[in-house]
Specification:
mainly alpha
Length: about 425
Amino acid sequence: QSTMALHQPDEAAPLLSDDASIVSPSKKTPVRDLAAFWLFGLTNNFPYVIMLSAANDILAKNNPGLGTGIILLAAILPDLCLKSFFPFVMQRMSFFMRVGVVVLLNLASFIIVALSDATWLSLFGVACASLCSGMGEITFLALTAHYSDTCITAWSSGTGGAGVLGALSYLGLTLIVSPSTALLIMVVGPCIMAVSYLLVLTPSPAKGSCQGARVPVSMLFLVSSPCLHCSLVAGQLCTLTAAIVHNSLAETRNREKPLDRIPLTMRLRMVVPLLPYMVPLFVVYLAEYLINQGIFDSVYWDGIFIDKDTQYRAFQTLYQCGVFVSRSSFSFIRIERIWIPSVLQCINLALFCLDCRFKIVPSIWVWFLAIFYEGMLGGAAYVNAFHLISTTAHTDFREFSMAIGAVAASLGIALAGAGSIGLHEAFKNVGPR
């Protein structure tokens, strides 16, 4: 076989279905698994959503002069730092241990922010929510590699549901109780996460395993080979590696090595094939969080049926509704070219900035529709990107690929947090409409 022959898609295609560890698309996924991953997505993103929805209230209690961008930075920088290294070492911890840490961070975030009386302590609580969200996303996305592909859709829908239920529940509770009391009520979330993992999710060896995926030794040489860079084709993940492994699977079956023993430099090279999916994710999240945290708190209508603070919460709620709808509609609408939502979101950012500066839109209802559309673009990019990663990655790399793919969104949000501070300063004096 020549090297060029291995580049043909029909040579690599069987690899995606021949491996026994890959769940057949036709196999019906247990309802328990779908419910568990939906609840994982819901409860994992709950603290993150609540902290952003409560950003104005958190700052109003201690330091109302700060823009909400500081809350976004506290909510994303710990997440980004964690995602930068955790996928490379996570195989040393069992899923049981990882989920336990996520539950504790989830619980701590609500309690600390609710009871804090200093800005730094509130930001520490927000950072706990960030670590919870980041570690949880890596853990549960990696866990989907051991279950049916439809669990990714369930997880994505759950994360979208967290946005809707989180923003709505906080908005509703703050109408009848104080923000601090509302945060304390939210501790039911981590309890649901623990129950879902222990009692709802069907048993699997991965639930108690300390090891990650196992990789044939022949792959170690392929990952470090310069030929890998010649085999990268958009829409095909590591085609050359996959084809060679498919051709030599019988020879390498007894020469396996744990993924956590692969040198760091080789793992970094494994990230390169993921860039066609990670870059659009980065762009779409950068644009939408510049809108959410840099513009939302500077736009409000005076003398209408809701006050300024409620308008901000409504903006966040509608955004999360859009995310939920698009992440839940993957079974009906799929997007192969995920750069399209990224481009449209950048156009959104430009239009929102123009309207904030010149007050072109006369009605808040137009803003409501635009924000819902903004959320739909972000949700569509997320669920389609991770589906493409899951279906194109070789099964031996799938757990690692799903985990490292999450870094792109966090990096975009982190840069948006820094940029939103500048946008807040630029638009803070525009005044009401």
